[in-house]
Design goal:
Oligomer: single chain
Number of helices: 2
Shape: rod-shaped
Largest sheet: 6 strands, mixed
């Protein structure tokens, strides 16, 4: 038991492609079949097809996308990865955020229209009830109508 605690934990060098177009280097701890980022509570699968070598040192990096739990599989060939890939990830994220904003605006507009319609309907009902009571003689308003 004690030897298991003293054993050095495995880490994997990673390149994380973020939604805003950055490439973040990190060393993430390796768990059973995945790497885990404890700070963001995100995990990615771990397999050799997604490892790419660094040109200078030859160290292997796991290429990750912030939006997917599956690493980007390049089979060790970095020439398949282009700046367009990173731009596409950032553009997709921007489009999704814009769609959320637009959907939220439509929902807000519909909610305001519905609440306005309910208020106007309630006011009309109150006016009809008041005039009904006045015409039936159940309600008299001073200075309104010809009393006597």
């Amino acid at each position: 038991m004690l030897f298991g605690l003293l054993k050095q934990k495995k880490v994997q060098n990673c390149l994380v492609l973020t939604e805003d177009g950055r490439i973040v280097r990190s060393s993430l701890p390796v768990r059973k079949g995945h790497v885990l980022d404890d700070s963001t509570e995100e995990a990615w699968g771990l397999f050799s097809g997604a490892l790419i070598p660094e040109k200078k040192s030859g160290r292997l990096f796991l290429l990750l996308n912030e939006r997917s739990a599956i690493p980007m599989c390049l089979n060790g060939n970095l020439s398949k990865f282009k700046q367009a890939t990173l731009t596409a990830i950032a553009a997709e994220s921007a489009d999704e955020a814009l769609n959320k904003i637009q959907k939220g605006g439509v929902k807000t507009l519909l909610a305001k229209a519905l609440s306005t319609a309910i208020i106007l309907f309630s006011i009309c009902v109150c006016i009809i009830v008041i005039f009904g009571l006045i015409s039936a003689g159940k309600l008299s308003i001073p200075g309104f109508g010809g009393g006597g």
